[in-house]
Structures are given as structure tokens and as C-alpha cells.
Amino acid sequence: MALLPRSPAEFGSARYWERFFRQCGQRPFEWYGAFPQLCPVLKKYVRPCDKVLVVGCGNSELSEQMYDVGMCEDIVNIDISDAVIREMQERSRGRRPNMSYLLMDVLQMDFSDGHFQVVLDKGTLDAILTDEEEATLGKVDRMFAEVSRVLQIGGRYLCVSLAQEHVLKKAVEYFSQEGWVVRVHQVASSGDEQQFVLPIFVYVMTKFKKIPGSAPQILEICTEEQDKPMRVESTEQLVATVRDRQHYALLCSQLSKTPCKEQVSLDLCDRESGKPRYTLHVIDSPAVKPSRDNHFAIFIIPQGRETEWLFGTEEGRKQLAASAGFRRLLAVALHREQHYEHMAGVQAELSAKVMELAPPGLPARHQVPFLSVGGDIGVRTVRHRASSALSGDYVVEDVRGDGTCCFRRLIFLCNRNVVQSEARLLAPAALPDQKKRRKGKKKPSPAEQPPAIDKSYLCCEHHKAMVAGLCLLGCPNSLPAPLAVLVVGLGGGSLPLFVHDYFSQAHVAVVEIDPSMLEVATRWFGFSQGARMRVHISDGLDYVAKLAAEVLPPAAPAQYDAVMFDVDSKDLTVGMSCPPPAFVEKPFLQKVKTILKPEGVFVLNLVCRDAQLKESVLATLQEVFPLLYARRIEGEVNEILFCQPSPEGRQDPAELGARAQELERALRQPGRPWDSSYTLADMLHAVKIL
């Protein structure tokens, strides 16, 4: 500890370094990595014929090793410590005739202009730039000016650094403004115990003649995994990229020493595009009893299933890890923008990287198993990709679920882990037009056979509960005819389509603010309009307000038996993702009550993670609607609220269950498909009155 300075400023003091090297003795001191680590980067920029200047050489073996392997022989080393210069001169005397050691300050060098092709700095800049005080920054400017002066045009300043943010930013800004090309390399780790947790970087600044005017900056980075430089647009982006690498190194160091108390998630990006390719979730299960073979495993989440509760939520992944029986499970999600060939390819790509996240105590050369559902990576086919001015970027994709069933999903990419709409697909062989094909006509390939939508199946649990809420309107033989239903929020159209198809007396009006969604629902989800189904492209707030203004009892009474809100919020900063806050404000809810018949029901899909906000929403609803039922969707944040204008319609949950069974029997008409796994009674058995 006596080798460390009393303050960072002492790193720039010649007196400190004299004392340091006397106490250090003959043993070489390598601040940042050894020659084998740095060699792959240095050999790209140092040629055997180059004249090389090493500034702040200390007693590092770097120059000697560069000389001895033939990388370069014309090397001049300078340092401000007389003790270390004499030691190094003695060490190389008679062995390296073309290498010299000189007592000299990098802030004021005696060399002529343009004397060197390479200036090599291993930790000297970091030692000088210990803070951002004016005097320190002045020293650094003098150092950079001297480095620039002694380098030829086309020469390279190679700076080995830990890349603290203020150090990297200062170097990049100074030299890029001088018209130099700046490239930052991350040095590959050796795999041995590191002196520093943070990774080592080499800044490569190539000198070009400064062009008058505003020449474009050329800034690049080469990460540990990729040799090809990646262009970045600004100093801020370069600094942020380096910071991400440093945070990752700190995370790996922490995870290698202690179990994580909370789940950790991070992205691994594609080398070419820089876009996320894998999302890794680290889940530790300390309750799992340790054994020889249960330290660590990798679980590949099948494509398209990352939105499911088991894989897409922290609680689900916790259950997955516990059932897998490993002390640490790494759950890996595959991104829809990327292409994956097969499980073996994914395993080969991830094998080295995932070991950086291995738990403490993992035995050497331990074989880490790769797990998945069914042993493959799943199937995902993007059918449509587009952008809407209101909804942003979105995709329609077909995925294979658990078993043989396939599903079509609408995903808004601003919230890519949430399924906006979903429908089950019928197998192509079951399509009616395929059964009627004339004999001898060429049968299309599976890729040419468009799968049909199974309209009898409601994929979303909250949609099932919303439909079940219609039981509040009465027994099957007493349901209003016609049954007037208003649905705000179209999405893929599954909810209004189911109500239309299974309630033959229903007349459904749908309000959708985004015209792109009507096109998506029609083209990709089997939605269609008709005499009992109309879509109105309008803001739901405006449409309901307009309807409320037209209600003038008794001449113009309320017209809707049921109003359903299934509309998402685009503002991700609010703790409520469905509906937007304006839809649950008291003045607007009073308008909803106005258009609802006295015995009608208002059904609301509420998705709120903010407990305080949720309490406020429920209180406001109860101020407007005296009778309020709630149905929590198990394993999801969704809660379905059934609101009625009059407390006189209060019904016991058990009575609702019996009514639901009766209604379902009426809906299951002969020849009409019905999803056998879905019962209205199941949807209402957990309803509670608020």
C-alpha cells in the first residue's frame, strides 16, 4: 500500500515516481495488462520499420518484448524518473542496441517535429489526467500538443487506458477536432485473474493534416468480440459504448463472486448491426441444494414464446429456474430481427460468452448444459412489418406455441415483450377451400397455403373474462335484442369478432384511433365488417363524448347495453399501460355512464403496476359506478373491472357462475366451434365485489 500516492495529483509528480520505483525495486511493474494481451492490437499499428516513442515507460517490459519478438527495434523510451531510466538502461545494455532510454518530460520533449511514426503511451495519460481541474487539463493539452508535434502525418498515437469517462472524452474530443481518425480497441482479456476488474482499451489516434473548415469526425470502436471497426456518430456515443463494456465487466466480476439477489438482464448485440441479438436473464436459486452437476445451465427460450408468463416475467423465470433445479439459470431470449439457424448454432455462438456469467464455485472444465422446450429454438415467421404514425413500428408474426398449435401475434415494437393481439391459426389442411380442390389441380406447398384464423378461440385471458362479463346483463333468454355493444380499441379484432360471432343478436360498434390497425385486423386476423359490425376511426374520448352529448332522455335514451375498453397507452412513463389515464378520469367516466343503459355493464381492462395510481382509479370508478366487480387475471397484471350504473343489480359471484354456465350452453350452438378449454364460469369464479 506504500506504493500508492496520498492523492491522485501525485501521479503527475516526478518525486512520487522516484520514490515509487525505488520501493518497487527490480521487479517489472505492469499497470495495464501484459504484452500477450496487448500484442494483437499493437501489431496492427506498429511496423518493424517504424520509429517508436514510448512515453512514461516506467520499468514495464513492454518495449523490451516488442523489441525481442521483432515487432519493432527503433524504440526510444522516456520517463521523468531518473531512477527508472538508469535501471532500464542497465537492463537493456548490450542486448538491445537500437533501443534507448532518456530522462525526459512528455510535456516538453527535445525531439524534432515529425520524428516518429508511433507514440506509445501505457497508462501515462491516465496518470496525468487524474481530475478535470484547469491546471490538470492544461498539462494534458501540452502533452497532446507535444505528441502531435513529434508524430509524422499518418503517424499513430497508441494510448493504453482504463478509459475513465473524462479521460476518453478528453482524448477523443482533442484529436478528432484536430482532424485525426480516432479508433478505440477493447483489449481481449487473458482469462487469468485480472489486476483490474475494468477492461483495458487502446485508443488509436491517426494523424491527418487538418483540413480548414468543418471536416466530418471519424470515430470507430472495435470491441473484444469483433475485429471489424464499428463507426459511431459522436463522442457521446463512443463514450456510451465504452461505458456499456465497463458495466458488463463489473457485472461479470460481481456475478463470479456472489449470487445475485435480484434477476439481472442484459443484451448481447449483433456484431454487424449493433442491434440486440440475445437477451440474457440471470436467475439464481439459492434454495436449490448444491450438487456436483447443478451449478449452472443455459435455457434457450423458444422464439415467439418470450412474451409468455413463464419466460417474460421475473416471477415466471424464477419458477422456471426452480423447476430446472440449477443454482444459476441463464434464460436466453432470441430477438425477432435476427436470424438463427438451429440450436447447435445458437449454442456455438453463446458458449464462450455465457461462461463470463458463470456462478462462483463452478468447477474447472465443467460441462454446462443447454436446455430448451422440445430441444429446439422454436419457430417465428414475420408476416408483416410496418410503421404507423400513432402506434409506431409494429410486426405481425406467426409463432409456434407449446405443442403443435401456431399463433399469429401483433407486437408494437415500442413494447416488444407485450402481445398486443393474438389469434390461433388453423392448420392449412383444415381450410375448406383445400378440401374442395378439383382432382388433378396442383396442390400448393405449405408456404403457399395461408393459414386461417380460428375465430372460436380467444387467446387472451383478459378477453375471455371481458366476454364472461356479459353475464351481468341477464340470462340467455333475457339478453337484450338487439344487444348493443361498444368496443373501444380494435387491435387484431379478436374481442369484437368473438362477440359478433357468438352473440347472434349483438350489434357491435368498434372505435379505433389508428386506421393502420383496421388494415392489420382485416388483412391478418380475419376481421370483417358487416351489418352488425362497424368500425369508426376516431379517438375514443371524442367518440364517447359525442355520443353522450346526443343522449337526451326520454326522446334520445342511452343506447348501449355493454361498453368495453381494451385500449393501450402509448405513454410508457406512466405506471398504467391500459387504458390511457384520460379514459379513467371522472368527467369522462360520467360520459361513459351516460351512454350506458341503466341495467348495462361497463367492462374495463386495467393494467396498472403503480399501486397508488390503481387505488385512485378504483376510487374514481366507484364514485361514478355504484356497483363494481373485479376479476384478476392469474399470472398477469391485467384486472378486468365490471361496472354497473345501479347498485340494485348486485349479484352474488356464485349466482354469476350459474348464469355463466347457462349462457355458455346457449352460445354453444350445433355446428359452431367452441374452444373446449374455455368456460365462462371459470372466468367468473374468482370475481369479487369491490
Automatic annotation (TrEMBL):
This protein's UniProt keywords: Methyltransferase, Multifunctional enzyme, Transferase
GO BP field: methylation
Ranges for region Disordered: 430-450
InterPro entries: Lys/N-term_MeTrsfase_sf, Methyltranfer_dom, SAM-dependent_MTases_sf
Record-stated family: Belongs to the methyltransferase superfamily.
Domain Methyltransferase per the UniProt entry, residue ranges: 51-172
Composition bias, Basic residues: 435-444
Source taxon at top rank: Eukaryota
Protein name: eEF1A lysine and N-terminal methyltransferase
CDD domains: AdoMet_MTases
Cellular component GO terms, alphabetical: cytoplasm
GO molecular function: methyltransferase activity
